[in-house]
Every structure is written in structure tokens, then in C-alpha cells.
């Protein structure tokens, strides 16, 4: 999944500069569309055909998408390469990493911020059904599709705005609102509150998914955008790997769930990450008010 997403999100960056955020938002909206379909699809399939055939059907569904991507994805610019030993015809070495990118403090603080945010951003998505079940809120199982539907708009519309007012300028308020929403998540104890939370959080968190690569892309050369985004996503993966288990450990066992502790950890991670992104903006333009 990581290889597929990283490749798919980087290819359009080669073709767009002025409208890059909007283009990447449209691409990223595909994953939230899957987030609408697959929870409902898997729930129905498990009840009708069992686990085995449910996984096979979903697998064939995904295979179709991958085959289409195989024939449609391409890059405009050649990869960043080093050519050595020209006397013997030369050879090419693909540049998998570019640690010199971290000499740019704007990029460094941005990657740090994006990584911290990953530790907390997905906690409400993962534990939303647990929360609704433990509080006897109806319509359990449909909040995640609602959230992903809102996320589709949150990935496209902010991208349109970002190309006009600045990508980091656009993502910062959405991150701040996401952090606040995580802290108030345990207050949503009825159907209306949880639906409103799902819509708002889906929209603001969706902006993070689509604009993170667009923001990183402008903090360096277009020819090395894949390398820089790859390093960023690698470091972000540690947040995805450890963030939810830490939140789950804080949450505890059924019957003794510490929701405030879990949202306190997750919200703090998002807030710390947001501050780091703000510092990255300051380094990039020399002012917190500049356009970037």
C-alpha cells in the first residue's frame, strides 16, 4: 500500500506546478472514496459469502485498480541520477535518498511535523465504532463512510484554495482544527454529535492527506520530489506504526476505557506537529504571514 500510494501521489507532481495541490487532492480523494465503499462492502460480504470469499472479491477489486494504474501512470521528468565512469560507457545509479534535503530547515521541520501528526491523526477513525458501541449510539458502522465522504471534499476543495493562497497556509488551519476536534471527540455522545464530528473531522483531516505531499514538493526541486516525499513518507510511517498501538494501550480494556487519556495523547501529537509545520513555514518565507 505504501509503495502504491507514494508512486501514485508523486507522478502528478511532475505535470503540475501552479495547480499541483488541486491535482494531488483529486488523486488522494480516491483513497477516501475507497473508505466509503470498502467498510460497507466488507460488512455486507462477510454476512453473505463469509470471510474467504470476501477477501477474494476485495482483492480482485483492488487488482483491477492496480492494473489500470500500471498502464496509466508515467512521469514527465527523468529520475535524478548520477553518471559515473564515462570512459567505460557510464552507469546510472538511482538516487533513493537525498539527505542533503535535510539541510533545508523548512523541509526538516515540515517532515518532523508531518511525522508527529501521524501519531495522532487516525485515532478517531480507528476507534469511532468502539466509541459509538460503548455509548450505545445508533448507526454503528456507518460513521467511517460518512467521515470518508467528507474527507473526499476535504482533499479536493482545500487543494483548489491552496493553489491560490499557499499550500502550507491552507493546511495549517485545517491541522489546528483537527487537533481541537480530537480533544472534543469524547463529548460526542449522541447520533447528531457523532455525525457532525465525522463530517468536520473528515474534511479537516482529509486536507492533511492531500496537501502533505504538495507542501513537501515545493520545498525543493521538482526533479527530486519523489525522493523527498519518499523520505518523508518513510518517517511518517513510524507514526502510523506506533501511534495507534500507543493510543490503544492508553485506552485500555473494554469496561475501563480511558478515552480522555487516548485523545489527550493523539491530540497533543497533532498540535505538536502543527507547531512544527508553522516553524517550517517561518523558515521558508521568513514570516508567519508569508504566502507558501
UniProtKB/TrEMBL annotation:
The chain crosses the membrane at residues 21-41, 53-73, 105-122, 232-251, 263-284. PROSITE patterns: MFS. GO terms for molecular function: transmembrane transporter activity. One of its GO terms (cellular component) is membrane. Residues 101-292 form the Major facilitator superfamily (MFS) profile domain. Keywords: Membrane, Transmembrane, Transmembrane helix. The keyword Transcription regulation does not apply. It comes from the Eukaryota. The keyword Cell inner membrane does not apply. It is found in: Membrane. It is a multi-pass membrane protein. It holds the Pfam family MFS_1. Belongs to the major facilitator superfamily. Monocarboxylate porter (TC 2.A.1.13) family. This is Monocarboxylate transporter. It comes from Pseudozyma hubeiensis (strain SY62).
Amino acid at each position: 500500500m505504501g509503495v502504491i500510494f507514494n508512486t501514485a501521489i508523486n507522478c502528478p507532481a511532475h505535470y503540475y506546478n501552479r495547480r499541483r495541490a488541486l491535482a494531488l487532492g483529486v488523486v488522494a480523494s480516491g483513497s477516501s472514496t475507497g473508505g466509503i465503499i470498502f467498510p460497507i462492502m466488507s460488512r455486507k460480504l462477510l454476512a453473505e459469502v463469509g470471510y474467504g470469499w470476501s477477501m477474494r472479491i476485495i482483492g480482485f477489486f483492488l487488482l483491477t485498480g492496480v492494473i489500470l494504474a500500471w498502464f496509466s501512470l508515467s512521469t514527465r521528468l527523468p529520475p535524478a541520477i548520477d553518471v559515473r565512469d564515462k570512459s567505460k560507457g557510464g552507469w546510472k545509479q538511482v538516487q533513493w535518498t537525498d539527505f542533503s534535503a535535510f539541510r533545508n530547515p523548512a523541509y526538516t521541520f515540515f517532515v518532523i511535523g508531518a511525522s508527529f501528526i501521524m501519531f495522532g491523526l487516525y485515532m478517531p477513525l480507528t476507534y469511532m465504532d468502539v466509541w459509538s458501541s460503548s455509548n450505545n449510539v445508533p448507526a454503528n458502522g456507518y460513521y467511517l463512510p460518512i467521515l470518508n465522504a467528507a474527507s473526499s471534499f476535504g482533499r479536493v476543495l482545500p487543494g483548489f484554495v491552496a493553489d491560490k493562497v499557499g499550500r502550507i497556509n491552507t493546511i495549517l488551519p485545517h491541522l489546528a482544527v483537527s487537533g481541537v476536534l480530537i480533544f472534543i471527540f469524547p463529548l460526542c455522545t449522541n447520533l447528531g454529535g457523532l455525525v457532525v464530528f465525522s463530517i468536520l473531522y473528515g474534511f479537516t483531516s482529509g486536507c492533511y492527506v492531500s496537501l502533505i505531499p504538495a507542501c513537501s514538493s515545493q520545498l525543493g526541486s521538482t526533479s527530486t520530489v519523489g525522493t523527498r516525499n519518499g523520505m518523508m513518507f518513510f518517517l511518517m510511517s513510524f507514526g502510523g506504526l506506533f501511534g495507534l498501538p500507543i493510543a490503544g494501550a492508553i485506552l485500555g480494556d473494554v469496561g475501563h476505557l480511558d478515552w480522555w487519556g487516548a485523545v489527550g495523547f493523539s491530540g497533543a501529537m497533532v498540535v505538536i506537529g502543527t507547531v512544527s509545520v508553522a516553524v517550517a513555514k517561518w523558515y521558508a518565507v521568513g514570516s508567519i504571514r508569508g504566502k507558501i
